């Protein structure tokens, strides 16, 4: 091996580690947002783009209120 190829290989390894770390953090963050429900509005916007154009999109506040109403308007089976 030539000395230049060793230094090029050594220089590319930290970049690969940095990219892997960034990728892991990005996947972790996406998973955390999905788990907490924070990504629900983004998912709603993506799905509403495929629906009919005549349906108006909800604002984030309206979407949040609709989700709360949907979650808590069902009969409670406790007690």
Descriptive overview:
The protein has 79 residues and is mainly α. The protein has one domain (3-72). The chain has helices at residues 3-36, 40-50, 60-72. The longest helix is centred in the first third of the chain and has 34 residues, at 3-36. The relative contact order is 0.06.
Number of strands: 0
Chain-averaged pLDDT: 80
Classify the oligomer: single chain
Order of helices and strands: HHH
Q: What is the helix tally?
A: 3
The fraction of residues in strands falls at: under 5%
Query: What is the 3D shape?
Result: elongated
Helix content: over 70%
* Largest sheet properties: none
| Alpha-beta content class | mainly alpha
Q: Please report the distance between the alpha carbons of the first and last residues.
A: 76 Å
Topology diagram in text:
Blueprint: H1 3-36, H2 40-50, H3 60-72
How would you summarize what this structure contains?
Helix content is 73%, strand content 0%. It has helices at residues 3-36, 40-50, 60-72.
Features:
single chain; 79 residues; mainly alpha; 3 helices; 73% helix; 0% strand; elongated
